[in-house]
Amino acid sequence: MSGFSALLGALGGHETATRFEVRFGESAEEAARHIREAGAIRVLVLWSFYSPDAAALAEELKQIRALADGPNVTHLAGGVHATAEPVQTLDAGWDMAAIGEGESTLLSLVDAKGDPAGITGLAYRDAAGKLIRTGKAKQRPLDDFPGFALKWDRFNALEITRGCVYACP
After folding, report:
1. How buried is residue 55: exposed, middle or buried, by Cβ count under 10 Å (0-12/13-18/19+)?
2. What is the predicted pLDDT for the residue at 1?
3. What percent of the chain stands above pLDDT 90?
């Protein structure tokens, strides 16, 4: 949940012309219900996970897609696994993988209404199935964003450093 707290902290203070609503799905059924309730509105479903959880969450993704899916729904994976294994993440069923720090990438996606064109920090497949990597995410200092989201009552331990100490991408 720490990834979500940081992302929501960034999103909560972001000024954008894009109208958006944040909902939380605590189960596959609840996430699917939120997707169905959106109707034809663009839906960006955020996932963040470590490699040991990747297989189980890929099964949950399949379950959600079976219950609610459509061309207006984009599942975006982030976190350690998506960063280290973006192709495997896409092959497991996610539409996009956020690579590296996700705050700037998420804010850019919200501004672009979910269109990944021109946004750095992503891997995805185009309509022909070709792998697209958009380069390194824009990195900003941790102090640019709160590590919590007062707006959505989401808190976590404060991070004083981020990323891999071994300079992983």
Report:
1. exposed
2. 39
3. 56
Neighbouring C-beta atoms of residue 1, cutoff 10 Å:
10
In this prediction, residue 10 carries a pLDDT of 74
| Token output for 113 | 């209404």
pLDDT above 50 (res 16): yes
Q: Which of 121, 123, 122 is nearest to 138 (CA)?
A: 121
Q: Coil, strand or helix: which one is 76?
A: strand
The pLDDT value recorded for residue 129 is 95
CA distances from 167 to 84, 156, 164 (A): 12, 24, 5
Collapsing DSSP to helix, strand or coil, 115 comes out as coil
Write out the E strands in 36-147.
Answer: 43-48, 73-78, 96-98, 122-125, 131-133
Do 142 and 159 meet the contact criterion of CB atoms below 8 Å apart?
Answer: yes
Alpha-carbon gap, residue 43 to 22, rounded angstroms: 10
